[in-house]
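Q: I have 162 residues here and want to know how they pack in 3D. Can you give me a structure?
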Amino acid sequence: MNKAYLLIGGNMGDRLANLEDAKKAITELCGKILIQSTIYETEAWGFKEQPSFYNQALCLETEKNATDLLHSLLTIELSLGRTRTIYLGPRTIDIDIIYFNDEIFISENLTIPHQSMTERNFVLTPLTEIAPTFIHPVFNKTNSELLHECKDTATVYKKIDL
């Protein structure tokens, strides 16, 4: 079995329902969710002129390899109404693979660990909640250390405890 850390999020429609629908589909198509963080409300990152996001980190146990997992997650995004019209723009759901085991994986469509995770509080805050001591395989630092060193000034609010 493989262990993947995912970040799910969205800022269009019923944000909470979209996260719940994504988790249900992930369980049905990808594997068992072992741990889930609190849901956080976060300001938009990059393209700021849009509503705030709900974000949540998940730890997933899956039989899929990283590439097959990505394809399943993209299918889930499409089924939940995800469209890609504006780079970093509004979306019903976004599902990113942050870590896959302790592997370093680079292909045309996928980079693991996620290439921008260390620059984003909205990724590191929920990820640190569920895996504070997990070591980034490139930087050889824990998620807690990466969060402490992150220069992102965006605000991340704890929204919903689960």
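Q: Anything worth noting?
A: The domain at 2-160 is CATH 3.30.70.560 (Alpha-Beta Plaits). The chain is about 30% helix and 30% strand.
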